[in-house]
Batch of 2 targets.
Target 1
Amino acid sequence: MAVHVKNPIVELDGDEMTRIIWHSIREKLIKPFLDLELKYFDLGMKHRDDTDDRVTVEAAEAIKEFGVGVKCATITPNAARVKEYDLKQQWKSPNGTIRSILDGTVFRKPIIIKNIPPAVATWKKPIIIGRHAYGDIYKNSELVVDSAGTAEIVFTPASGGEKKVVRIHDFKGPGVVMGMHNTENSIRSFAQACINYAVSEKIDIWFGAKDTISKQYHGFFRDIFAGEIKKAEGQLQEAGIQYRFMLIDDAVAQVMKSSGGMLWACMNYDGDVMSDMVASGFGSLGLMTSVLVSPDGKFEYEAAHGTVMRHYYEHLKGNPTSTNSVASIFAWTGAIAKRGELDHTPEVVSFAQTLERTVIETVESGIMTKDLMLIAAPKVDRYALTEEFIDVVAGRLAKAVA
Ligand code: NAP
Ligand code: MG
């Protein structure tokens, strides 16, 4: 007796080892239990190349239309991949393409399991990082100067008004300079996405910047963020959410001493760096999920890790693998729960929660893949193979929903 899901979920298939896991999850953990329409897009490397990457754009448009997507990890081609897959060109990162179409913010959330203790003993609840993924040093212009001279910022108004000039430095000899920017719209969208996410998860929001040093640039972020928080005051109060603005160094120190359970909104570079710190602090990449949230409330769920290429090549050689499918399963449950929430179908949300609980209880009973075995406490003496883990979860899930 499968649970009926009212509206479709957009499915974005991917590459390598995660593609193999993806199909098993869908066939063994989702389809037998849900009567669900999937709008399928194959973002596998070959098909992106065949469609001149149109499939990625179409998938993003479908997420806009239906509101919820779930994505398998995909290859971002580099020179070696262009050769390996005989690609027409070095296609852009699918995540980058989707993010720019949805104008979204990425939130990374670790999965907490009792016998996989975090490296930081005080962390009891997830620390979720929201990274502003536009601008700053990621869209910079820089210049190595090889002699004495003056570096300036020049702003030329499109309307033809007077130029604005700010001196950066009078170089007495060789050095280096950098220019970067952000836009009010993008910062506003970021703040809105953070508010949407925090309200949907009912967690506090922390935002850190270096506004004592960068009074205009970082101060601009602080003020825009505060403005959006002010507009959402009623909504935040209703959800019981506190907002804290801190100096970024204070935020880092507070996070280390906290028990977790907050959304940590980060400027682009801080988010890049801190998300890796938090991910390794919580144990394994295989336990890190990620969701892209657009300012108008569209959601795309995925595992934070890549396609696990090394395991895939072992698999192709016919060797057994022990690849962790937990984050990919949680990508599916995240999307299903959100679908149920938007459709007002609590039985769908409840299925997603049952599947999540089943996965966590499976690991807590000592059945886990090798990456987790290495950090489990108490120790376990054997690890499950890729397919074996999914099969155990499927068996337990059938009992749990019966
Ligand atoms: P990766 O897929 O994240 O894997 C790196 C290593 O981390 C693996 O070799 C494995 O370590 C460990 N690992 C990651 N996920 C695991 C899991 N679920 N279970 C067990 N171990 C896991 O990164 P990569 O191999 O450097 O990148 C492969 C491809 O993924 C690249 O083409 C890249 O473009 C793409 N990528 C995609 C996304 C995305 O779609 N969101 C994100 C990142 C990377 P051991 O080898 O030590 O077992
Ligand atoms: Mg990083």
Target 2
Amino acid sequence: MKKVLVTGGAGYVGSHTVKELVKNGYDVLVVDNLETGHRKLVDHRAKLEVADLADKEKLKSIFEKYIPEAVIDFAAYLAVGESMEEPEKYFQNNVANFINLLDAMNEVGCKLLIKSSSAAVYGNPTKESDIPWQEDFTECYRPEKSALLSGNWQGKKIAGEEFFQCFLDHYNSIYADRPELKLSSDEIIKLRIPMSIYGVTKLLDEIVMKKYDEFCGLKSIVLRYFNVCGADPSGGIGEAKPKPTTLMTLAIWQILGRVPELSIFGDDYSTSDGSGVRDYIHPSDLATGHIKALKFLVKNNKSDIFNLGTGTSSSVFEVISAVEKASGGKVKYTIKPRRSGDPAISISDPRKAEKVLNWKAKYNLRDMAETAWKWEINNSKIKIQKSK
Ligand code: UFG
């Protein structure tokens, strides 16, 4: 196994994985439309084709020319809030373009896929024992109504089951002539779990992958990431979003004076210090997780789903404190009301990945803060040099 095609390989987690792949001797072709990715994040040992997965013809010609043995797919939108305001855009990129990718793979006989998914598929815990999240939760929990929060569908404010039905009708109308992609009632029930359209698109992708396994033998590994933060220890690659929304990056940006203050969304949760608790995971750990998953898939030719998290919990205040220690600065913050849709706690049970893939995260919160800080400092230097 040598040739791997990586979609979205110029993005945050994608670029870390590409670096790890080339380090391990893989021949890597990155396919990225550079809408949110950056050419400079792609390791110089990998090739880059600038292409959009919406362009079926171009995609097909890339596959015919390169003939990859496996694909790792990172190409997706990932902002939870935005997905509620622009659900059709998320449908197009995260679902329709993904199906184009699966079709292109099938046409050239490439039958191995590693796919980035998210803890967002788990929605909100309904009871204490749901945490830590285990992979089979999405198989076992059968909600009667969709948990979708309020959003916007074709100019109309909408939420819950009504929002979900609009999304479902959209899928059904687009794939009316593809009986193999028809959703069963069990699959529809499952799709009611996530609270965001982002989460629904990821869970729908997982379901679609299962269908491709059944009808054309395309085997895949789903990796459900928890909260990603930190950067490659070299300081050379990291998250490069023009408008970050995640906690650690915003805390760093506050110290750097790029945002006037950090809002802490709620200090009245029933957690140790009242703030939200998450399972933070380093992108270099995700990168090794992808390689272990790829090796497992090549060896066993069997589809499966794994959480990628540390299994440990950190509160908002603990993240702030880690950033302050790493930077030597002080984060200016104010306490704001809870953010709509935030669960109090989200933690992974990573034991399945440890047992089956022999993978375990090695970076802790302090490493994440230190590497993220190093990257932001380096990245701002790059920008300053360019603008001179
Ligand atoms: N938070 C703040 N202030 C901020 C930003 C975040 O207090 O300005 C808090 C949140 O309330 C939460 C914690 O920090 O308690 C983490 O929030 P993030 O926005 O960093 O991350 P989320 O947990 O909301 O979401 C992340 C990714 C999603 C992914 C999800 C899966 O951004 O893409 O994890 O768990 F789906």
